[in-house]
Amino acid sequence: MTVPTKGARGTARPAPTSPQPPTTPSHPLRVAIIGGGPGGLYAAALLKRLDPTREITVWERNAPDDTFGFGVVLSDETLGGIEHADPAVYEAMQNDFVRWDDIDIVHRGARHTSGGHGFAALGRKRLLEILHDRCRDLGVELRFRTEALDPAGLADTYDLVIAADGVNSATREAYAHVFRPHVATHHCRYIWLAADFAFDAFRFEIAETEHGVMQLHGYPYAADASTVIVEMREEVWQAAGFAELDEQGSVDRCAKIFADALRGRPLKSNKSAWTTFRTVVNEHWSHGNVVLLGDAAHTAHFSIGSGTKLAVEDALALAACLDEQPDIASALSAYEEERKPVVASTQRAARASLEWFENLGLYLDQPPLQFAFNLLTRSRRVTHDNLRLRDAGFTGAVERDFGCPTGTPPMFTPFRLRGLTLRNRVVVSPMDMYSATDGVPGDFHLVHLGSRALGGAGLVMTEMVCVSPEGRITPGCTGLYTGRQADSWKRVVQFVHTQAPGTAIGVQLGHSGRKGSTKLMWEGMDEPLDDGNWPLVAASPIPYKPDSQIPRELSRSQLTDIREQFTSAAWRAARAGFDLLELHCAHGYLLSGFLSPLTNRRTDAYGGTLEKRLRFPLEVFDAVRNVWPEERPMTVRISATDWAEGGTGADDAVEIARAFAAHGADAIDVSTGQVVADERPEFGRSYQTPYADRIRRTTGLPVIAVGAISSWDDVNSLILAGRTDLCALARPHLYDPNWTLHAAAEQGYDGPGVVWPDPYRAGSRRPQTGRTDAPKPRLTLGT
């Protein structure tokens, strides 16, 4: 029998038939649970406690005291749910908890401690003992060293089958055509070990070896024991010779590498093996009367301590739904509806944490305090403001080391690009308004951009301004191909410089390429015009969507013409007084279309290798840079990934950024996608930031991060962690033109990083919304 990895309790054999449709039985509910891990056992206990007449059986193929991990960490939120649902289990666990508040980060001989985090842990074996005892007390039948029947067989016999059979779930695989699992394998190897003493904090220790970087994750789970996880990238694991070592050899080698953290003491194993983490996602969690729970349904990387937590919370939700809903089908539907969004959020955080550790080598040269802050905020769940509440002393030290003046949040520190100094790190991202007539920006653009300049951002960007009539996306797009357009832009620029002194305004120049001649966004985004279409051009004759117009492949002479259109527009932009110019090489527009292999199928000097695909965008950049004033900065917006197989990816983005930097780009504005219509983006909070972070750490080039950055806390966190230099926000500025001013007010900041216009200063304090000092009742009188 194959020994499963930690948390893997696969017990079921492939099912030959489908489970029965869930029905409401006339007899007491009969429940079969496959897998005796914490999630399955806790579900059994809860279901039996809620209704003692239920017949509940748990199958576990291993012995009662078999476990493949050491310690379990649970959050206060999870513990609160356990206490409310089953005080007996909570009380038994509480007697064995080890609690601590600190996190230690040890790197290059420096140890930094952050407090106020609040952890609780206990031994995994002890947790199983508590749950075994509780199940027996309640009358749950536990069958150890016993293979379960196949899921279909159980489904025929029982009213409900709960598959808690772990990451290697045979139940999930038996019905893969329904559950539709996606399993992603990642780039690090790790091993679960234990030490015979208790760390006094959650400890992260970094070892830079001759073979590469390795990391230790350690935490206490008993008065005399700690879990120790050693992790490294696959190539480091291979180079260090771990592939040739047996179990004890690996244990001894890890103890030697991390001897300082372990105080020279040995490590111990428990059938420990090196493994690669796999993220499990299922489209559906139930099929008939069979439902997935815990690692069978989902996994989240151990670096955020979520595996047992999620399984226990699944059990709580499933038991509650079965108690609340009128029938099993409704209960399973409600369970999935309740848990999937919560799990998806946790998985996004876990994925961010996992990828941070996979790319740990990028951060080794950060200043020690910033490195520690970066590690603590890696999942985006711990933020600058959150960390300041937990440990103001630590956060203040990071801010001082970063260069924040006293009382100044990171977002309100200045930043210099060439001859332009921005007074804060907030950028109003380019947003197409589709409200121009014949390419001329009018009163709408004056009010739109002017109001956001008055709102306090350090830099306000125009929408994509098109370099020719044929380069427009829609008939409502602005341009810079006529003197009248330039004069109207000059009016906007002068308003910003006069009425919002200290705010810079930048212009983004672009050409629509194959994505042009479409309707206004609210009339049908990317849909061809019903009439009045103009011919499209692109790197290759590939339509954006099946019903889109087919563009003509640009000839060499046409490339020259378009390059001249860009330089003419840049010259007009300089005359209009713009402070910064951005070249739009993202989102599938013309220059982006040259960069992506999915949209550039040329066989001449402008297609093929990345170097050749870069050729025309770089020619345009050079031509624009030659007419753009030397002291004014130029940035380039790129799509760092196409979110599509065979398209541009993170490695390509680094090389694209390097190429533009070599030609004089002052910063890279890092967006993603919108290059092909069948993209599959992975949305989430600040989901594009890792691409900016990687470019910044790899090339040393300043970057602008964009994409679902919605709070001032996010901006402070990203800036202070060194993941970006500037943050560009779009939708938040549509919701609130004064977003930056309000961010300052909410943080109690009043300094040079943001200035309230004199007419607005009376509104610099949040208005009161109602009385909050009413006397509270002293007595409650009965009737």
TrEMBL record:
A Gene Ontology molecular function term of the record: FAD binding
SUPFAM superfamilies tied to this protein: FAD/NAD(P)-binding domain, FMN-linked oxidoreductases
CDD domains referenced in this protein's UniProt entry, alphabetically: OYE_YqiM_FMN
Stretches assigned to the NADH:flavin oxidoreductase/NADH oxidase N-terminal domain: 411-744
Domain of life (superkingdom): Bacteria
Pfam families xrefs: FAD_binding_3 (PF01494), Oxidored_FMN (PF00724)
Domain FAD-binding intervals: 30-347
Comp. bias intervals (Pro residues): 16-25
Segments of this protein annotated with the region Disordered: 1-27, 752-783
PANTHER family for the chain: BLR3436 PROTEIN (PTHR43303:SF3), NADPH DEHYDROGENASE C23G7.10C-RELATED (PTHR43303)
Name of the protein this chain belongs to: Bifunctional salicylyl-CoA 5-hydroxylase/oxidoreductase
Native source species: Streptomyces chartreusis
